[in-house]
Amino acid sequence: MGTSKANSGILHAGFDAAPGTKKALFNVRGNVLYRQLEAELGIRLKWIGSLVVALEHDNLRVLEELLCRGKENGVPRLEILSRDGLLDREPNLAHGVLGALWSPTAGIVSPFDATLALAENAVHNGVKVLLEQEVEQVLVEQGRVAGVVTDRGIIETPYVINAAGVHAGSVAALAGDESIAITLRKGEYLLFDTSRGDCVRSVLFPTPTKVSKGIVIGPTVHGNLFIGPNALDVACPDDVGTTAGGMSEIIEGARKLIPNLGLGSVITQFAGLRAVAAHDDFIIGPSSFVRGLIHAGGIQSPGLTAAPAIAEAVVEILRDDGLSLTPNPRFVPVRQSRLSFKEQNYTTRQRSFRLNPLHGRIVCRCETVTEAEIVEAIHVPCPAHTLDAVKVRTRAGMGRCQGGVLRSARVSAASKRVGHATKFRTQG
Amino acid sequence: MRDGPLNVEEIDLTNEARADVVIIGGGVVGAAIARELSRYNLSMSYWKNILT
Ligand SMILES: Cc1cc2nc3c(=O)[nH]c(=O)nc-3n(C[C@H](O)[C@H](O)[C@H](O)COP(=O)(O)OP(=O)(O)OC[C@H]3O[C@@H](n4cnc5c(N)ncnc54)[C@H](O)[C@@H]3O)c2cc1C
Of A313, A315, A358, A412, which has the fewest Cβ atoms less than 10 A away? Predict the structure, then answer.
């Protein structure tokens, strides 16, 4: 999980992308599909809506444009709200606000949770996962994909799907397809603890300009508040550090929307990399150079929202190419979702403790994560092999103290108990 | 297709491994494609690097 673990976690409504683009098409369809995924996979998400806020008179014209664009893209129930209704809804909003575009179909999701839920369900239905292995070579014979070479062996295959995020260009090149150029654009964030989570009810965007979408402010599904991202072109795919300049930029941007935003409850900062394709749209389709190579690259925002729709499109591409797709009679669309110990009520916690006494040991106090949950994270269908992976599965170390009092010794002990030889690293 | 979840360690690439489809990338896009493909009766779908 590269960029999928460092983004805004917004399920965009779909008014932003230009009509007719893949971004627009898959955004709107993906937003609809998440409603089904919420029911089937128990993904944590909230349909809280979004507001594009106008602070200057010129902005009102842009809101009208976005409304028209959204309607053309098929986004339902968009409306422009006046100042009075807005301040009732968002009392912390800058009082100079003039109006906003309201999109009730926008939502927020935990990007980790969405990715893991999809992955776990895929594994449950027979997909095989190779963790932490790198594809080093794509084998091509007579112009057609023949297999992949990983750092642990060869897999013969007639089809390779290139969903390698910021590395999509290099993966294409491994097969001899040099057509994919990806620019890396960093976005930095500040995350606040849950005491600020109710500062806004919906996701707030400033009115976009020609050069920037601006700094967003929004709640997370876990009740935190985030501000960001900015946009900074970088050269290295590992460059996810944050910068002093970036922090100032996002604080200044966020305060245009919420002037009284204090910084006392900031708990961490992070950054993610957008994989920007040369023509600025998603690259989804068969390679023009190598048969059997299908690209799902250049998936920048709204890629999180669009992912389920991109998946549908990729399957159709495979079908069109002649891959025989008979339904899997054992496909189970539903994942049994688990309430975390923190989310359980007193009675359920008592039951959990009786079933597994390791629930009596709290490993992370801020997020109330138990040792039993750590053991489970190391044991699930897509098991955690690193401390970072344990974090995203359990939220251990993601609370106010950011792992300051996380009992990492206990995490390691738990890993040994389930027979994992893997040493836990603090970074993924 | 097998019953129940697969233990990742079971896959042995030292023997000749074959897959109908290999997905490179275990972010949200790779995961969504893997899940969509699991609706169909493919002999195997591999996908890489789900989490780091
Ligand atoms: C700052 C920012 C904010 C964003 N906000 C939003 C938002 O609010 N809403 C939204 O819808 N979208 C948003 N996005 C976009 C969204 O995060 C991405 O579109 C999405 O996460 C891309 O997923 P992916 O699976 O393509 O890539 P990734 O998550 O990067 O996954 C690619 C995977 O491929 C693996 N890989 C690469 N090369 C190889 C190899 N050779 N062998 C094996 N594995 C390999 C990597 O290790 C990685 O795990 C945002 C993006 C950024 C950067």
Answer: A412
